[in-house]
Amino acid sequence: MTAPTTGALRTDGATLHYEVRGEGPLVLLIPGGSGGAAAFDGIADDLAADHTVATYDPRGLSRSPLDDPEAEQRVAEHADDAHRLIELLSPGEPAQVFGASSGGIAALHLLATRPERLARVVAHEPPVVEVLPDAADQRAFVDRVEATFRAEGLMPAMAVFAAGLSGPAGGAEGDGGARPGSGSALPPRAAARAERTMADLPYFIGRIVPRFMRYVPDVPLLKTLTDRLVVACGRDSRGELPHRAAARLAGRLGREPEHFPGGHVGLTTHPAEFGEHLRKLLRP
């Protein structure tokens, strides 16, 4: 694995840690869940053979501290962070963006607000549950996660969250696949990543989940931008909430979803196939 060049970017209310590999047109990779830049370690080097590949820790996670640690989070701020990275790394040239899960929601908002800066957006299983016919039930589910976290703490809230997504505990929101376990059995970078993922879970459950899963995408506007938008699902996650939401969004846009290898965390479980599939969707 090639060591990336790292940097820090000041934005409104946060300092973003970002990593860059390769040369060529910019591809910005936005992680989901409590995953950070390292969530893309399995695919970044291959993409960097003919692209500048950038990823980062979203604000409030890992190495991207907030100025106010208690600040509420908004999708619009996270999308603006992605825009600022594009302005820094690809001034004057449109970029391509891949967003996983909650990162896919940020990517959708970025496309809706800054379409002139984007050549293509691939949103993999963004949990935009407000597009579903049972959106009211999903709002109640998010309310339960938030209330459980406040009253009982992290692990009971994680159990409610995992049950509602009908996916494996801790893995269904695009955390990049890092799992708790014995850090001593992992390579140093992987061990550090696992530690960061666990440390970031309270922030993710307490402030990312409630805001991102209440996000309402601008479907009529996105429908005018489908020439540069790909909504994607995992081949193995049918029936799970993020898959249902993404497939429904694609249908509302008049498109079929693109299917990637694996499930919601196919990025981690099938990195070679996942990366190759993404490469085929990127514009030259």
Automatic annotation (TrEMBL):
GO molecular function: triacylglycerol lipase activity
GO BP term (any one): glycerolipid catabolic process
Low complexity bias: start-end ranges: 181-191
Leader peptide range in chain numbering: none
Region (Disordered): 170-191
Biased composition, class Gly residues, residue ranges: 170-180
InterPro entries: AB_hydrolase, AB_hydrolase_1, AB_hydrolase_fold
Protein name: Alpha/beta hydrolase
Source organism: Streptomyces alfalfae
